[in-house]
Amino acid sequence: MIFQDPYSSLNSRLSVRQIVGEPLELHKASSMSSKQIDDKVAWLLEKVGLQPEYAARFPHEFSGGQRQRIGIARALATNPDLIVCDEPVSALDVSVQAQVVNLMDDLQKEFGLSYLFIAHDLSVVYHISQRIAVMYLGSMVEIGSADDVYFDPTHPYTRALISAVPEPDPHRKDKQRIMLEGDIPTPLNKPSGCSFRTRCPIARPDCANAVPPMQSKKSGAIVACPYVE
To answer: What are the sequence ranges of the domains in the chain?
Structure first.
């Protein structure tokens, strides 16, 4: 797991060596000596762009980006196949975000990792993802390749979400913002049937009767809406 806040996810009383080495001590204790763990921690720090000498330091001596690199090193310690990334760059400055995302991209290629990358920044999601699942009020509404979801969204909510991405080209006039009406319902008391129906521009009366199942469409997307085509 790579956590969202690099300031609260690292124990301030532990050194970097203890933080990164703890997974190894928990899961590899029977096969690794203390010297081997020290060597593995130094190797992991180098892999995430930190000096091995930093192992003796404590979290308060690092910037936010460096702390997140320590968190990434900790996540890599036991050679995982899957890493869950919970908003791993949302607490960082934009320039540092790019560095961390590029680092994660490089590590994925080197170690053959799979990421479950949870985020609300759509540009970051598109940059790092091969497949994207869009959620509304805790339920998936669309699944597809990164290109299909980002450039050819199918579900009405996905279309509105993508339309809200800022356009950096001031001369582009063809992109129109889709404005949804109404307020977001509380997740504690979601509308019956399709939870998006109270704000959906193509909603019909029977949308209130049952939760729509995920269905494959002609476009190749998997969408929780029977009326998008």
So the answer is: 16-128, 131-167+175-223
